[in-house]
Write a structure and sequence with these properties.
The chain is an alpha/beta fold and 85 residues long. Helix content is 39%, strand content 27%.
C-alpha cells in the first residue's frame, strides 16, 4: 500500500479527497494531512510518504512554494497538484 500526504486548506474538500483516495481509488493510505504548506513541511519531518497531493492556493505557504521546498528535502517524492484555481 502506498502512503500519501494530503495538503488542502478546505477541511471538507480534504476529507472528501481522503475518502476518494482510500476507498474509491484504493491502494493508498493517507498517512498525514495538512491545511497549508508550513504544516506539510513539519509533517514531512516525521512522515515520508510515497506521494504528496497538494492544492496550489493556500494561506501561510502556497503549493508552489511547498513544492520548491519539498524538492530540496525529498527530490524523489512524487507530487500531484490539485486546484480549482
Amino acid at each position: 500500500m502506498y502512503k500519501a500526504i494530503l495538503v488542502e486548506d478546505e477541511a471538507i474538500i480534504r476529507h472528501g479527497l481522503k475518502q476518494l483516495i482510500e476507498e474509491v481509488i484504493g491502494g493508498f493510505q493517507v498517512v498525514g494531512e495538512a491545511s497549508d504548506g508550513k504544516q506539510a513541511i513539519e509533517l514531512l519531518k516525521s512522515v515520508i510518504p510515497d506521494l504528496l497531493i497538494t492544492d496550489i492556493r493556500m494561506k501561510e505557504m502556497n503549493g508552489i512554494e511547498l513544492i520548491k521546498r519539498v524538492r530540496e528535502l525529498h527530490p524523489e517524492l512524487y507530487i500531484l497538484i490539485i486546484s480549482g484555481y
